[in-house]
């Protein structure tokens, strides 16, 4: 772990004393201590004892180890007391297992961690872990958040954290349900904005190039327009609008153009959006009922499903009268 | 498969039951001799011969001597399906070169082939009859001759294949005329230098001598050159029109289309129609060839070209800067884009616009995992999954499995969704053919259901017309002698005949004619889908390139 200790058999020494003194040392040197400092402070110890003591401290989570560049470019290992707030603070008085679970959850940050993952990492049994988690939840140390990725999957995170957008789904999720009406409305509004921009460009300019360029809009402009409309109760970011614009690109209704920044300027190329007119009218196949016919694969000249007896064809023809 | 079904249906419509049956037999067996066809269909050999003769005459069938010395006949299904394009081809000829061209092309389409002389003779007659009926002045055969030459020069007509004969004077196979000759008019004076072309298949001679060729045979011993419609050239023309329409629609401006049309018009002279990218044309040439009545300023043209190359690089690209900029049309890419657009349209209508979004995500990202799709499309993961799998079931999207371990366990495998455009195009094409077949069948059904009524109406019209003629003759003859009473009597007679068809029957007839009109319009629309997909798929097929001869010394 800490140093490559020579593997020599030795009498077991009571090293509780060493551990206590190392902790004291750490408290003195808040920036961390290295092996040399420990050696100087504990002249009686040998390397094996020091290593065992350090390992024990690491295992119980009282100290952490990290690397630092030394004087001669050799990385030096430093030991420091673990932050009281994250380790002992809220779980003071709690037992060892609860501390462990708390640590696992806090490590996961605002992405949260699944109960099965906690179980695997903590090596605790299901009933025991459930009890612990329930207990901590009631103490408001942690909270359970439902993930949008899977309806029944709960993830745990520290109580005061705001869940990550991958868990909540960002602006598009409301009560863990995808708010597709909201997304659709935004989709339409963005399109309408670009449509109006294109129409006004066509009115204002006569030469084709100016018409084309006048129809361009940046994501910022679209964002401003949507904010001014006030259709959203929550605050939308430019990135949210970019998501919506992307769906419009996927719909084939708008086009994205990257304008290259002028030479020498530090700005990145800007992304511009413009309305895209359809290349073709609806294709011929879809103008007859056969295009959308659910049983076209079973349709034969003779048989139960045939063009002569087809109800779709009949209704379609009667529809034109 | 649907294409073959449709082809046989068309064949039946055009040439009747027996020819269709024989056509079917040949199509299904790939190639067959007359004897084999006779055996498997049970039709006497003489009739089979006549049927095959019709097929050869129309360029539908080809023949070749097999290694046993028999003549194998093959049927080209495409040539049959082209018949759906006849109205379009005739209209195109009319628009380009006027009525005389339309008449000649029509004759060639429906008769398969003809010599120039007989064609001009019969068509001048027919055209003049029409003109007389309309009260216009007649035209001279020289006008038709001139139009014919134009059609040949622009490659819309071509020489027919020439039969090759064996030692015993039997035609054993067809040989396409050499490239220098295929679009060349024969010298004006008839004489010895005319290309001698006596050989028609033995069975064919009968018909040719009997009907078409008697005039030619009478005036000179030398047979004439037979001409046929060059479908490929017409198809190329239609293809260019589709490209122009697409550009005009996308840029929402007809002028943009005209710019492309000018480029394409130049390209059709310089570029082989199968080429992926056309020969470049310089800016100055475009400017010079742009129709004057468009009134496009120099600057505007420049701007349109810039817009075309910037926003539609899959259609027009700038290949060099010389000559004010060289522009080329990427025909294959443009077709691919259009094909994608048609398929997208199918997806949108069949599965909904949400599915189209998913479909396009896959198209744009090429290989994509399900989770990525769900993230991109801004809809509930469950819905996205549902729509995606629906498309998968109908073969519109495909899956590539990428196993991390050799056991292909699903949990350790990436499933990447992708779209194989060609496969989907084939699926859609087959459906389109099926739809076309269904529409044709339905139309025929409507016609036959109302046959009795239509006949009745025709009879009524004939009777009324003859009565009215009779009356007007009487009126002219006796003049003042006709009293008003007699006139009233006549009117009552006409009314009595008119009432032969009841109000209900009249409504029924109206309805039927509307149906037929609608079904015909649908056929044209379906044809546009089929045409584009076929053009695209034809270009994706690359004949295997012959391996370059290896240098024996390995240099």
UniProtKB/TrEMBL annotation, chain A:
- What biological process terms from GO does the record include? transcription by RNA polymerase III
Assigned keywords, A-Z: DNA-directed RNA polymerase, Nucleus, Transcription
Which Pfam families does this entry report, sorted A to Z?
Answer: RNA_pol_Rpc34 (PF05158)
Q: What compartments host this protein?
A: Nucleus
GO terms for CC?
cytoplasm; nucleoplasm; RNA polymerase III complex
What is stated as this protein's family in its record?
Belongs to the eukaryotic RPC34/RPC39 RNA polymerase subunit family.
Name of the featured protein: DNA-directed RNA polymerase III subunit RPC6
Automatic annotation (TrEMBL), chain B:
Q: Name one GO biological process term.
A: DNA-templated transcription
Q: Where is the RNA polymerase III Rpc82 C -terminal domain?
A: 147-333
Superkingdom classification of source: Eukaryota
Location in the cell: Nucleus
Q: What residues does the DNA-directed RNA polymerase III subunit RPC3 winged-helix domain cover?
A: 343-419
Q: What is this protein called?
A: DNA-directed RNA polymerase III subunit RPC3
Species of origin reads: Littorina saxatilis
By sequence similarity, the record places it as follows: Belongs to the eukaryotic RPC3/POLR3C RNA polymerase subunit family.
Q: Name one GO molecular function term.
A: single-stranded DNA binding
Task: Output the lineage of the source organism.
Answer: Eukaryota, Metazoa, Spiralia, Lophotrochozoa, Mollusca
**Recorded GO CC terms:** RNA polymerase III complex
The protein's UniProt keywords, in alphabetical order, are: DNA-directed RNA polymerase, Nucleus, Transcription
Subunit note = Component of the RNA polymerase III (Pol III) complex consisting of 17 subunits.
Q: What does this protein do?
A: DNA-dependent RNA polymerase catalyzes the transcription of DNA into RNA using the four ribonucleoside triphosphates as substrates. Specific core component of RNA polymerase III which synthesizes small RNAs, such as 5S rRNA and tRNAs.
